[in-house]
Write a structure and sequence with these properties.
There is one protein chain. The chain contains 24 helices and 24 strands. With about 700 residues, the protein is an alpha+beta fold. Strand 4 and strand 5 form a beta hairpin. The protein is globular, with a radius of gyration of 29 Å.
Length: about 700
């Protein structure tokens, strides 16, 4: 879309605008240039996945454009990047009729089906050999887009193929879909484009993890996630889901009489869409003559599907010549010139043998299905979380049922459904317990929640899980004190609660099998070292419901001493950054519980600091304020947590992965994939440990 010269010029303009924006000195007359620059960077980030400026710099320019347009409303254009973000809720989705029906594709499952498809195609066309275009079959939600006079005017779901839901506002939240495209350059006035909305594997896994943490069932596949998101009534929420879109077909167009259509084949149309700024499968497509080459490519692609960042469930084979497509025509159900080759399903059938009920550290009761082991997607599955009682009811599950199990990519195994028609009459209903399966306390379910909980904080299962969490790497980081050791010490009576970690009888431990003097000394040292962890790690280690690492840092910064939270009201907590009512309520409940307060007093007596050592230092102050860091590989002299602490002490922020938000990647030996990814993002500075140390004040 952008030539090398255009890229250089736009990047030059970007740097100049950034310099001016720091002083809010961009004149209204530069609004057009600012829009062009922002569109360019959206294309680099969302289509090419190769950003040239940091996220913060993009935001800086975006805010400047917002300021200029607010002060000069006449300068706002429909395709301005600021017009993507909608405010308020969509009341409903009106019905929209497609300009051309969105038909289904005929499916094939083996080479014989493709050979038969080719035979019919040759009979219909009278040709001995046909040229095909082969591309991935994306597993998402189907959409149609209409552009008129270069402007996006409508987006719609597939619906019944003839009409769907009008979702234009939600479509505008997908940044890989341009708000305008220069179709007029090629004489095209009105055009309807078909595409697929996706959630990539990383974002899908992240979203499912959030659902699991809330005690909700995860979505079975990215298709459900993408399709469901398209119908969310709050565009701001849609924007947060990180949807992407591939467009793969021009279904309708009108042209001026002055210009010839710039494409005569399907593959050329994909190239045109790519050139206009859309994500089309231009790089993934292949053109072949003869069906055997098509078959070979489909089989080859199936072996590499896991390497893709998004899910596909097959390949689409299309007759490449558009005139031949017209000649072959369509049935009422599907086009005769295209077929889908479906990959082998990542599903299996098994038998539900029983259900176990596990207790988490917050008391949540999770039913876990035990099934006959079944291989799915290269993994043998024997245990599957059922998440909560509602899932069992919704799926009508019974012990003894034949069940369909799915595993899409790296997603948690999931029971799709029971096959009730195969029941013999000896199946048993699954009885959800009324009492905790460990401590026998009565279970409780909060209004509006799907999860039953044991509210006895002395429940042995909860105690063990809390200790395990307290020890974990991101909390107190007690090295060598893994889950199995915690459970063993608890069962032997050597450990009964979190403070007990600091009063262990090492003489008794030394007599246990596998605990020689060196092991005991290492464990002692790790426990003692944990006493020096900063307050935010201690707060995270306490396992307060809904409090993650980021919230823990917010809380640590808010007080001089941890016990100060006894005086905080729910409203006081809600006034802290990014703490909502639910989180505030949970924190307030924790610090209102006398047992919890007693535990904190014991920890302080045992040598742990409950003071905020950084309270006098403004957040983000220091020589590295505003800079983000990521450490990878083995550093020559520093441990990774030491290096991170040094960066944070100077106001730097540690991020978890490589993205345009990263300023510095500090590399050691065996840096791996993070280094390779960082090399593709020009804004990231890749430095050694020695160069990092030079950034610190002497």
């Amino acid at each position: 879309m952008y030539t090398q010269d255009a890229t250089k010029e736009l990047q030059k303009q970007s740097l100049a605008l950034l310099k001016s924006s720091a002083k809010h000195a961009i004149e209204p007359g530069k609004a057009g240039q600012l829009r062009d620059v922002l569109r360019f960077h959206e294309y680099r980030y969302y289509v090419l996945n190769d950003p040239l400026i940091a996220d913060g710099e993009y935001d800086q320019l975006f805010k400047e454009l917002e300021r200029i347009e607010k002060e000069n409303p006449s300068l706002i254009t429909p395709d301005s990047p600021t017009q993507r973000v909608a405010k308020g809720l969509t009341k409903d989705f009106p019905t929209a009729q497609h300009l051309v029906p969105m038909l289904s594709l005929d499916n094939s499952y083996n080479a014989d089906d493709l050979v038969d498809f080719d035979r019919k195609a040759r009979e219909l066309t009278g040709l001995k050999e046909i040229e095909y275009c082969v591309e991935p079959k994306f597993d998402g939600g189907s959409i149609s887009l209409i552009y008129e006079d270069d402007m996006l005017v409508r987006g719609a779901t597939r619906g019944n193929g003839v009409e769907g839901d009008e979702i234009t506002t939600n479509v505008k939240q997908i940044r890989s879909i341009p708000l305008s495209a220069k179709f007029s350059k090629y004489g095209i006035q009105t055009v309807e484009i078909r595409g697929e909305v996706l959630i990539n594997k990383n974002n899908f896994a992240r979203y499912n993890q959030q659902l699991v943490e809330q005690g909700l069932a995860p979505l079975a596949n990215p298709r459900n996630a993408a399709s469901g998101t398209l119908r969310i009534k709050d565009p701001a929420e849609v924007s947060k889901r990180s949807l992407e879109a591939f467009v793969y077909h021009i279904s309708y167009y009108t042209t001026s009489a002055l210009k010839d259509l710039p494409f005569t084949t399907h593959s050329q149309s994909l190239e045109l869409l790519w050139e206009l700024g859309f994500r089309s499968p231009n790089k993934e497509k292949k053109v072949f003559k003869g069906i055997q080459n098509v078959i070979d490519y489909c089989l080859e692609f199936e072996q590499t599907r896991d390497s893709l960042p998004y899910e596909i469930d097959g390949m689409v084979i299309k007759v490449n010549d558009l005139d031949l497509q017209d000649k072959m025509g369509m049935t009422s159900h599907h086009p005769r010139w295209a077929i889908a080759y479906k990959f082998k399903a990542r599903q299996g059938t098994s038998k539900l043998l029983g259900v176990e009920f596990q207790v988490g550290r917050t008391g949540s009761i999770t039913p876990v299905a035990k099934i006959q082991p079944v291989p799915i997607g290269g993994v043998t599955v024997s245990s599957i979380s059922l998440f909560n009682e509602e899932v069992i009811k919704e799926k009508d599950l019974m012990i003894g049922d034949t069940v369909l199990v799915e595993r899409a990519g790296d997603v948690i195994p999931y029971i799709v459904k029971s096959q009730a028609e195969l029941r013999k009459g000896d199946e048993k209903h699954i009885k959800f317990p009324k009492n905790c399966p460990v401590c026998d306390s009565k279970l409780f379910k909060e209004e509006g929640e799907a999860v039953w909980r044991c509210i006895n904080i002395e429940c042995p299962a909860q105690v063990v899980e809390r200790i395990i969490h307290f020890n974990s790497k991101d909390a107190m980081d007690i090295r060598g004190f893994g889950d199995a050791i915690v459970r063993k010490f608890y069962d032997l009576g050597l450990l009964k609660d979190i403070p007990g970690l600091y009063t262990l009888d090492f003489e008794k431990i030394g007599k246990l099998e596998g605990f020689g003097q060196k092991s005991v000394d290492n464990l002692k040292a790790a426990i003692e070292k944990s006493k020096t962890q900063p307050l935010n790690r201690l707060i995270f280690g306490l396992g307060i419901r809904f409090v993650g690492e980021t919230t823990a840092k917010t809380l640590a910064h808010a007080v001089d001493h941890l016990m100060d939270f006894r005086q905080f009201t729910v409203d006081d907590l809600k006034n802290l950054e990014d703490i909502g009512p639910k989180v505030a309520g949970s924190i307030h409940h924790f610090f209102s519980n006398e047992s919890n307060l007693q535990m904190l007093k014991e920890l302080e007596k045992l040598g742990l600091s409950l003071k905020n050592e950084k309270k006098g230092q403004p957040e983000g102050s220091g020589s590295l304020a505003g800079q983000t860091f990521l450490f990878t590989g083995t550093l020559p002299t520093l441990k990774r947590d030491e290096a991170e602490a040094m960066a944070e002490a100077q106001g730097g922020k540690i991020v978890s992965g490589v993205s345009a938000k990263l300023n510095y990647l500090v590399v050691g030996e065996s840096a791996g994939s993070k280094l390779e990814k960082a090399k593709k993002i020009n804004s990231i500075k890749i430095i050694s440990e020695a160069e990092f140390l030079k950034l610190l004040p002497r």
